[in-house]
Amino acid sequence: MEGLKVLIIGSGGREHALVWKIAQSGLVGKVYAAPGNPGMGKLAECFDVRADDIEGLARLAGQVDADLVVVGPEVPLALGITDRLAQDGRKVFGPCKECARLESSKAFSKQMMVESGVPTGRAAIFEDAKQAMEALKKAEGPMVVKLDGLAAGKGVVVTETPEEAALALSRLEKLQPGGRIILEERLEGVETSLLCICDGIRALPLMPAKDYKRALDGDKGPNTGGMGSVAPSPFVSMEQAEELTELTVVPILKKLAEKGLHYRGVLYAGLMLTDGGPKVLEYNCRFGDPETQVVLPLMEDDLAEIMLEACEGRMERSSIRFKEGASVCVVMASKGYPDMYDKGFRIDLPKDGELDEGVVIFHAGTKQDCSCRTTTDGGRVLAVSALGKDVDEATDKAYGAVDKVQCANLFTRSDIGTGRKGR
Ligand code: AMP
Ligand code: GLY
């Protein structure tokens, strides 16, 4: 039998990791990516179609006759790529537009949590900033101000006092004028992510991973998309992940199903482990980046097979299996990220033979210039992942590979993994 043709949408480190894992599947014959990145070159044929060009992607899926389409980022999901491709009879791993509102509308997401009895912080939803401002005059205690819509990580501000919240609100409003606003109680505790693969009814957790969100060592500096990751998570075991799935993901799937909606894809719950138990901060409708770059190298099972089961609503296995050991990913970012940074710096990468076993360098923001040289082309440029028998070994291997990358404009955190490097 000819292998499956799989099209992966997106161009970051997460998508490179998806391509890498899916290309290993015994079921898969050919992998395509749109727009993809230079690191995927050997594993996938890349097409220059943007991840938000829904009609262009539908044409491409037809042209390559994709048996399975895997959507990496949230924007095409929020734009309805899944619904559009379903019209052509294609199988898509990624939720429909209405289900993707769990990420694209924080107000919808909060309503769903409340309706389905999922533990979450107390919150009020306002039709616009003016109403929220009025409410802040009578508010007390530390609050979090959130924009309703997708804001590329810039739509949430955690504050100390209602006065600070009012200031944050007037700044935030400019990003989405006239949009709805959520005011939420500030929760204290350890933050962790739970990622599940869902088939519309059932949910199976992936191995929990820790993400390093701040730009600088010791969790200092501005928030970023993620400067590194480690799996297994030091905070949440696989058994706890199963319990958290029952508490925070399954009730949402049930509530959606009651509305005739079947969530098929990854549901990612951002959790705060508070003294009063776990509470959901937000849902994302996609894999985490850079969590994917540590979780997939540890996955024992065939990802393409699981994705097909999920798309077809027949995920009957009892769990997803992971290898022993640990995985660490160090992100190499452009100096200045997450604020202003320059692009176009030449990168000299080590050859495959120069890397330790279990090390993979995923490309995140790279480009190939006209003489086929790789250059920097984004904030997060490379995601260097390494497997080890434990976190110590994986950390050493990952930083060992980082040292072999030559580029004049990249920086890393030096405390990812064991945090022992003191670099
Ligand atoms: P969100 O997009 O809702 O996850 O918010 C982004 C970040 O803001 C989270 O990862 C948390 O660090 C923080 N955050 C969001 N909601 C709260 C909350 N209710 N209490 C404390 N921190 C929060
Ligand atoms: N690493 C956080 C995210 O993917 O949202």
Percent of residues in helical segments?
25-40%
Task: Tell me the radius of gyration.
Answer: 21 Å
Shape: globular
Which topology of the largest domain does CATH recognise? Answer: D-amino Acid Aminotransferase, Chain A, domain 1
- What class would the helix/strand composition place it in? alpha+beta
Give the low-confidence spans: none
Give the N-terminus to C-terminus distance in angstroms: 51 Å
Number of domains: 4
Tell me the name of the CATH class of the largest domain: Alpha Beta
Named at the architecture level, the CATH assignment of the largest domain is 2-Layer Sandwich
Look at the structure and name the CATH superfamily of the largest domain.
Answer: ATP-grasp fold, B domain
- The overall pLDDT average reads 94
- Overall number of strands: 23
Walkthrough of the structure:
The protein is an alpha+beta fold. It has 4 domains: 4-94, Rossmann fold, CATH 3.40.50.20; 128-179, Dna Ligase, domain 1; 190-311, D-amino Acid Aminotransferase, Chain A, domain 1, CATH 3.30.470; 326-411, Glycinamide Ribonucleotide Synthetase, Chain A, domain 4 (Alpha-Beta Complex), CATH 3.90.600.10. 29% of the residues lie in helices and 27% in strands. It is built from 13 helices and 23 strands. Strands 12, 15, 18, 19, 22 and 23 form a 6-stranded antiparallel β-sheet that branches. Helix 5 crosses helix 6 and helix 7 packs antiparallel against helix 8. The longest helix is centred in the last third of the chain and has 13 residues, at 391-403. The chain is globular, with a radius of gyration of 21 Å. The chain starts with a strand and ends in a 12-residue tail after the last strand. The mean pLDDT is 94. The structure holds adenosine monophosphate (AMP) and glycine. Adenosine monophosphate binds next to strand 7, strand 8 and strand 17. Adenosine monophosphate (AMP) binds next to strand 7, strand 8 and strand 17.
